[in-house]
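Components:
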Amino acid sequence: MNKKNKNILVIALLAAFPAVSFARGEGWVPKPPEPPPLSTLTNEARYIEWKWRCDVTDRSTGIDNATACADVLKLAGELEPVEPWNVVKARCFAYLCDNIAIDVSPYDWFPAFACWDRYKRPLSSVIWRRNGKIGAQFYPSIGQEINEGNRIGKWMVWKDFDHIIPEWDKVISLGFPGMKKRLHDNWKDKPYYKAVGMASDAIDRLLDRLAAQGEKRGGARAVRQAECFRRLKTSAPQTAYDVMQFIYLYFVLSEHFEAVQARSLSIIDQTLWPYYKADLAAGRTTEAEFREQFKHFLWQWGSIDNYWGQPVTMGGTKADGSTEYNPLSLIILDVMDECNLPSPKFHMKVADNTPDAILKKTLDMARRHRSLSFIGEKSCRALLEHRGYPADEARRFVTRGCYEFSTPEAGNGLEGGHVNLVKVVELLLTDAKDGKFDAPDFAAFKKEYIARACATAKCVGDFFYEFEKHLDDVNPALVASLAGEHSVKTGKDAMANGTRTGNNTSTCLSGFGTAMDALIAIKEIVYEKREMSLRELGSLMADNWKGRDDLRLRMLASKRKWGNNDIEVNRMAREISKSLSAVVNSRPNSRGGRFGMSGHNARQFVVQGARTGATPDGRFKGEEFSKNLSPTMGVDTEGVTALINTLSALDSMDFPGDFPLDVMLLPYTVSGDKGLEVMKVLINRYFDNGGFVIQFNVFDAEELRDAQKHPEKYENLQVRVCGWNVRWNDLPRAEQDAYIRRADNLMK
Amino acid sequence: MRMTRKEFMSSAAAFAVSPMLADGGRKIKTPLMLDTKRMAIHDGPGIRTTFFVKGCPLRCIWCHNPESLSSKPQWARFQHLCRKCAKCTMDEATCPTRALKLYGKPMSMDDIVAKALEDKAFYDESGGGVTLSGGEPLLFWEWAVELFRKFKVAGLHTCMDTSLYAPPAAIEALLPYVDMWLPDYKAKNDALHKKFTKVSNRIIKKNLERLVAAKAKIEVRCLSVPNCTDGADLAARHRYLNSIGIPESAIVDLKYYDYARSKYLALGMKDTMP
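Structure:
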């Protein structure tokens, strides 16, 4: 086949299989600001702020991002017919390590790379092309069905390569040379070992290049960096700074070089503490220097500014039952507070042993909009033990992504699609309108709803069962495989089935709260008050409430909503979640792991909301719906205690993926020391009820309105969206309005 | 529960002619309820649920809850929200701009207790409980005694937010059931008190002294209204409270805000706020 025909084939394959993307499939992120001229990045603060938003590298050291993208696409195209795919990817990875432009700036404690743009990573287009081919080859029949479901908002299905984490403690204790030795100790003559070995060698060469550039640049920081790169090539990290540099390089190599996101920066206080303590004892560093280095460390992700945020875990419990929080935890939190960045986002493990000083400091930071959420250790550990993990592994769990968590050894859990529970209501009413469905009573209606919701969840599971058979045919995870003990011993790719106890897949529920509101509204309108037939209600929804604003407003104002601790709504929610759990949680996936139901829905409450018709709870067509397991914005009029009680109606053990709750509070309710005590009680109650994650937004509506009118005054104002913080000014107007609506409700 | 005006009028009428019966069949005054505030954290210790009754014998010119003065139901129309529809729905639930609000709805004692119990776990963890406020809850003191007795049976910590403008018998009857009193002390000078609240403070002081004598737990709130009850009167109030045995630690000075003007307008009442 000549080159022209090959290109035509690729285009044809992509056309036949366009939307089953490995990207996040969510279509919208805030447009990054235009970078300033490089000549203006002449001090530390400006340099670090912009280093990951434009190319700050020394061009004499290698190629830029555009050239890298073109070169690896061409290289992969040439090698694909003659080499195993993981080896092809390894050669591309090595090409980038050897050729991408770099710099080691005296303004910074961490190096810069020309592959800075996370939306145009060099290997992304290579993997995208491969994805199309694999889809067409192995599961062409489901492609159109997936695309149609994505288009109408029935589900959102994409391949997830964004939630893999290494066993940080083990890889840090080994370092790059230790991982390499372990690979060679287990070496077999298989493409896996060849590919991972090539990646490991390439990392060594990159460390040499970085060291040489640091020495060429000169100056105290550049030379210290160069020394660090030399150490990292020959040994495990020796100092706290080495550990930070190692974590940073690991992240960049995985995310920016090979398009696999390492979705954790470790349990950072626990990880750094022994090194920091030894550094201080040996006089290798000072607290002031650590603070500076850690500030630069955080700012790398602050500069990358990934909309979804980069998670960092804090704290935990030791085997003897005492807390893992240590004196460094407070220093880390101090620096984080001072930086006031949306990303990294901090996940604070909370247990009975959590020091009061830590809890008070972080609650105070949360009410000042810092990027924090609180993780209930007791309930997370209970869930993991319930899923069969040994108690000691459960104790050491780590968070990754928005709220997801796993034992350290099971860090390759992936998202397996978002099931739109509100769409199920819409489709049922459409069938009723068209005379294809009717139910004599609400019990029959609910039975059909549950059957269809379960069928949708099963269908999404079926897609992922097929997808995940071929994950490493699309995007083998070279760095994660090098880091994975079980992966290296078994020769199984870390992305696919390379962990001993993980390889799990989450099926996320979208619009849970709104679906409950819509169902109870149907009960009231059709079956209790008999104001219209199901068919007429279907027609009214199809007409987007045309001519019945009175009814719409009444339903909107109804207190029978998810979040108000209405016994009937709660009971129905439990029944539905139990039914979905029985379909999802019992099921093995195709990677040797299991599916698990998840209560979070990333940004699908907006995306799928826009693709979902009007619903009988008073929602117009296209409006966003509830996020996570929280109520629809603005309908929880009974206050936060009722909200927390509502969540206790569900069994969190049915949600092994995660069980998150968003709480909005007025500033005056959590002001002063009593306010902190109140927040403490709220999180304790939620965790005692089995909750996994709770996060706060503390605002009043007037402040938000002012922020809408005068964005220039609120450049640093952040809001918690789902599992991440976003600057207020980066939110679309409709989402800003939703926050204002909810804040208004608190005043009622 | 949301009601149309018609539904409301019929329910309110029924309510008005069916007051709760006390032991022995004697009729006692039962209030309409204004609001229920869950997770109240400024109405006593810990996290609390506060129930607001409608009706007050005082007429403080600075009152920030004018909807609580009359014990009868009242419609409010918030002018800044009202779209002035050709045909008003006269229904809170279907008013397209939420400009209409109905103040004063019946709520049975059992419903109040049940609502309070929903958050018991939060009270237990925070040292909180339930608070009765208003309006003036002691205007309905016999009803309050029965309600508080039920609160105590349910194991709830109780606070009474009151002006103490009530007969001594009310205090005596409630003493066993109120864990903490949150009285307002509005002015030391009786002439000022009469001028700004339309009632004398003599009975209030007497009740305060009775609470001290009974060793009741008290937190006295002293509102300081500029050019009315600030300065010398505030200092005099502190001196008096100290003199009867209430320490500074049990006195809270409150700042005055004139945030309630829109409510006067909405209720069609004369705005008396300074």
